[in-house]
Amino acid sequence: MIRITIDGKTTNVREGTTIWEAAQQAGVEIPVLCHDPRLRPVGVCRVCVVELGDGRIAPACVRTCEPDMAVRTATERIEQHRAMLLRLLLAEHPLPCDAGRIGSCELERLGQRYGLVDQDGRVADPVLRRLRGLFLTARPKDLTSPVISVDHSACILCDRCIRACDEVQCNDVIGRSGKGHGTQIAFDLDVPMGNSSCVACGECAQACPTGALMDKTLTQIDGSIHRLEVIPSVCPYCGVGCTVDYLKDADRIVAARGRRGPGSDGRLCVKGRYGWDYTLHPHRLRVPLIRKEAYYPKRPLTTASSGGGKPSRHPLANPVPDYERALEAFREATWDEALDLIAERLAEIKKRHGSSALAGFGSAKCSNEEAYLFQKFIRAVLGTNNVDHCTRLCHASSVAALLECIGSGAVTNVYRDVERSDLILVTGSNTIENHPVAATFFKQAARRGKKLLVVDPRRPRLADYATWYCQILPGSDVAFYNALMHVIIRDELYDREFVRRRTEAFEALEATVQHYPPERAAGLCGIAPELIEEIARAIGRARAMLIFWGMGISQHTHGTDNARCLISLCLLTGNVGRPGTGLHPLRGQNNVQGASDAGLIPMVYPDYQPVGNEEVRRKFETAWGVSLDPKPGLTVVEIMNAAHEGAIKGMLMMGENPFLSDPNVNKVREALANLDFLAVQDIFLTETAEFADVVLPSASFFEKTGTYTNTDRRVQLGRPVLPPPGQARPDWEILTELFNRMGYSCSYSGPEEIFLEFAALTRSYRGLTYEALGTDGKVWPVPEPDSPEQPVLFADRFPTGSGRGRFVPCHYAPPAELPDAEFPLVLNTGRVLVHWHTGTMTRRSEPLDALCPEPYVEINPADALALDIETGMQVQVSSRRGSIVLKAIVTDRVPQRSVFIPFHFREAAANLLTIDALDPYGKIPEYKFCAVRVEPLGTRDE
Amino acid sequence: MNLIGQIAKLRAIRPHYTEADLRELARQLQVPEHRIQELVSFYPHLQPLPKGAQLFQVCTDVACLLRGACELLERVVADVRAGRCPEAAVRPCHCLGRCDTAPAVLLNETPHRVRFDRSGAALDCEPIMRSPHEGQDWQLNPHRGSPPYEVFLKWRDNPTAFRAYAIGELERAGLRGMGGAGFPTARKWKAVAEANGSPKYVICNADESEPGTFKDRELLGRFPEAVIEGILVAALAVDASQGIVFIRHEYEPEAAVLDEAIESARARGLLGANAFGPARPFDIELVRSPGGYILGEETALLEALEGRRGEPRNRPPYPATHGLYGRPTLINNVETLVAAAAILARGADWWLGLGRNGAHGLKLVSVSGDVARPQVCEVELGTPVREIIERCGGVSGSGKLKAFAPGGVSSAWLPPEAADVPYDFESLRSAGSMLGSGGLIVLAEGAPIGDVALSICRFFAEESCGKCVPCRMGTAQVVRLLETVQEDPAQELPPAFLRDLAATLKETSICGLGQVALDGLLSLLQLFPDEVLKRTDRGARSGGNGSRSREGSGG
């Protein structure tokens, strides 16, 4: 510790503490402009200068404390310098700038404090007035970005945006261009922001102290920003679950700001920061709807849902084609009429065909409370375990493998623990686009010298930061990982002690991977044997490795095998249960972890308690006061198949849109049309709702209270920001109505009561209350209110019968549908940064839709050349199941002989093409591999 | 090769490169595009050359201004317009280190000498290949009367003893840095020698760019072996394994000479894998500056060497402990290294035996401006300024001294009464100025004080890197203020403001550039308050709201 005095106050600080930090500790405020505690200090604005004991002057933000330093922070001399520096900056600053206009310009605020500008923003200093006359031409504005306005005249070159972009988000877009007084911030090679490689995360705007970089929405508000209500909540999009403060003006959200917390640390991506406006879209459902008689028998209502033909080009104002045509099929109804109809029809089917003719899809977009209540409704009221949700489509195979090998389906460590890893393996995950904020921590870790191994057939942008990038052949994961383990065992680089004490069936693994020497595996996975050897040695020698994976691992017919290999690799090298180690399947939806925890799965009750276990079933029968079906239910694709065959006759959908998200959409369409009865609760009239008999308007994420569990197992509280539109109601309220109308009497005072009921039936959530969650949330398991948080699980034993982790070796097997002469290319599907799943939310967000308005297919330059295809050309992509028309983009991000299509776009639904072949264990469809053909249509899209 | 080198390479192959070329370079090297933009927009010698035209640059700093630089500029512009000479992009630029042949010009980035043809016929413009002062020998030359590298060879195998000897002798001699700051050399060597970390670096700062300063140019071009030996002995003393000469781009003729000398030293085994004995490598890399006065600032120089914008670092930590790539680094000026080699060859007593009026040692003074024969003078420290001017043939023009700046445009101007002040660190400081870079600029009675003042202010504004607020904003606003006052006699300078601003610049700027940027102006205002506010026609250079549109130093 170092002892220093600041303005006469003595304080002890750790070595390396800056004077500014020490002053903060001592409660002395030193003004700053270029400094932000989240960023590396640069000491360029000089406003933080202080006087040292010997009369010398030092910038407090960069100067570290020395023993017995005597610091004076506000001597007359210092204050004069500060006033002069502010004068120089204000001389060329718009008064007010866009931020100043709403009271958030830090420069103008300091100017007022130093008497240079009065409270109304008028110049109050004669020298400043004189200086302001010197420069008559203002620097330009750049309004080309859909979300951020750039005003170079307000910029003070504090470097905060640059550090935010380059060092926090590692997006590497902003720099300084020019020299001296002519210097300006610049994007890429000094191109307009909207034309640059900017991914619109808005970290720069959040970091900017003036109006130089600002959320466009904030430039449009009236009055002071300080009068806005700030609501602490979380982000509704992905499983990273960033903590967000929403700024509310009357009944509109006007901005979202990252709030610092143990997970996302205040960072956001483009969707979280700018994608909230969908909730205010005019398409929102406001009243219950009942299908008109004229629209029976059910048929597709729009070209999008008819599964063929080229949709009419849409104007930007209406990014969802043919929406009005779909609405025409419905008439408005009262809540009572709609709810009674649902209750009556579901009861009728149950009576006539039995409970197993009913099914329900919940959603990983709904809260834990709603997921719990939904599965309780399906199980306790409809009497079936046919309840599932989109987890089946993302990590079902990962969970199956995890449960089998280590006895727990959740992550064993949190994403931010990469800070303590020395090797990070990211495989089958386009993290930068799909988990953007988690990716910032990976990028940062790589920049700080940690080894990053990226494995993916389609080159993800994360590969640019990687130590090694392996572009394996599609579907060859097992061969690649078996080869790594082959080398690790052969060279005795595995953790003998860990394998001996903590695992079982090592011999089986050894026997299997023996067949995968790098030379042989190279032929299967396309990675050179030397590189396999090098990487295997690095993994074997790593002190701490964390593995992250995504849909590229799980969405295969052998997805469970892929995950088993990753688990084996971790067990083999002893990389579980310690800081910086672990297995982390990156969860997709904001609440896919929670929805699964809450029992939205056909074979388990809440907290993964098997429905087949008699003791467990009794527990739930007692709790719910009904007898329950002992037979596990059907999964998502099985339910659709059953509907197709007529075995399932009635369904309730809560926030799920299988029409676009399930594989082989043409079959889904037939299945949905084939249902006797379909009720949908949603915020928009989705493609699925077009087949509904009754559609109920739900409250959106922003309109209700509820908890959401992110990829880290962190349970966080979402708070209402806005009232629901029209008659829309939260899903839990709708469900309560249905319970009562179907003879199961229940009432809840609010979501927390549901939460407590759910938590009490689990071990993982038992100790939690809303109050305990606070604004930072809590990582489960929390069996008791005072349980310590455990980001790293399984330090001593695994929750398996034997307490050991189990090796489950697998052999390489080819994908279900291999390319042939007729369909010579491999189709890979996935997501893009600015869009979310079926696009119901993001395509109704003006900024997000502006950033990526239309569907496209990525094709390798060599294939494009052979097919005579150029970027921008319309092409037809066909598989055995359907065909779509969309724009081609020629890029070497996809390997030769393969194409990539994002699945968000209803007018060119990628899932018309995908195959509904399933992984035998996880029942997950093979979205990542099917055979297609691409043909140019010869028209250039201009 | 760092990114600056990569861009320089691209420019060498494609002098008129386009944005697409830069994009491709970023892709190939896998660096963010903004990093390339940061560099090409900062460094003049990375910018693309004008297509289909010669590039003609004229220095307009004080010495050249006094010798008709502005008239030359106008003349060439007119000639190009009238088709009397080949198509050319004509640009003003800052000091080229050739104040002795003012007005200094660069034609396609090569230094040229221009002779006025009063008849109006074509200009005579020939490349400068050799020093105009060849033949003079200097006492400072450590190899005068003895073969090169004697000191180094004598001590090479005994570095520990040499370290003690070298630091002791330099301390006893009281040698101070000749680059501008005058920091005691022995203390610097000692700090680097004692610093933990390896490798250690020795950098010879040959980025001489202060207007009115060209003495290092002479040493580099005429005594390259003395420079190399200076680096060798410094490296031996501090235990460095890599030497770098960072030379300004405009000293290409001198760089070629030095290159040759380095090559022959390498051939002799003085550099290379076994330079300091078996398996004890040492070598010298010659790095050409991508341009800019600021790179003479030692930490800006380090940033440039690391491939970034030349923006000075906050100190502490200092380069002695955290220098190039965070390693201990000794950075000395060319003259300092040569002087050190000479002292270590002849002993501190030799150095102490030189000097007058209580000062000790030798000094190279670059004399320019209104003198009959501008040149580099070797003088004993403490020699009265008047004598130095006399050695250059006395004041030219009116013949009457009006003012002089003893240490380049960073130093305060002194009146004729101060001409008897001994030329040494302490005396000049007492007189209210400084020895600085040793660039003595002389103004004769009749010199355009307003133009000189504006040219100095523009120099600092345009050479400011822009990193810190006081320097970036302060220097530019002073230029505009002075311009408006000179344009409109009804306007006044707010005098207290300039004084306060100068104090803020001095105490809050990150580096020396900003700290001294207003000293010249303030001293001229004190000496000639009325004249500063007047501008002659030749001061009215192109550029209106000037500073944003102009090129940096060295074209």
Structure, briefly:
By secondary structure, chain A is α/β, with parallel strands linked by helices. Chain A is built from 34 helices and 38 strands.
Tell me about this structure.
- The complex is a heterodimer of chains A (942) and B (555).
- Chain A contains 34 helices and 38 strands.
- Chain A has 942 residues and is of the alpha/beta class.
- Among the domains of chain A are: 2-132, Ubiquitin-like (UB roll) (Roll); 419-584, Dimethylsulfoxide Reductase, domain 2 (3-Layer(aba) Sandwich); 825-940, Barwin-like endoglucanases (Beta Barrel).
- In chain A, the strands form eleven sheets. Chain A has a seven-stranded mixed sheet, sandwiched between helices. In chain A, strands 33-37-34-36-35-38 form a six-stranded mixed β-barrel.
- The radius of gyration of chain A is 29 Å and the shape is globular.
- Chain B has 555 residues and is α/β, with parallel strands linked by helices.
- Chain B folds into five domains: 3-36, no CATH class; 54-127, Glutaredoxin (3-Layer(aba) Sandwich), CATH 3.40.30; 150-351, NADH-ubiquinone oxidoreductase 51kDa subunit (Rossmann fold), CATH 3.40.50; 361-444, Ubiquitin-like (UB roll); 449-545, Up-down Bundle (de novo design (two linked rop proteins)), CATH 1.20.1440.
- Chain B has helices at residues 3-13, 19-29, 33-40, 62-66, 69-81, 150-155, 159-173, 185-194, 215-222, 224-238, 252-267, 298-305, 334-346, 348-352, 385-391, 425-430, 449-463, 469-487, 495-508, 512-516, 519-527, 529-532, and strands at residues 54-59, 88-93, 104-107, 110-115, 124-127, 201-206, 242-247, 283-288, 329-333, 362-369, 375-380, 383-384, 401-405, 422-423, 439-444.
- In chain B, strand 10 and strand 11 (375-380) form a beta hairpin.
- The model of chain B is unreliable at 540-555 (pLDDT under 50).
- Chains A and B meet through helix 2, helix 5 and strand 8 of A and helix 2, helix 3, helix 17, helix 18 and helix 19 of B.
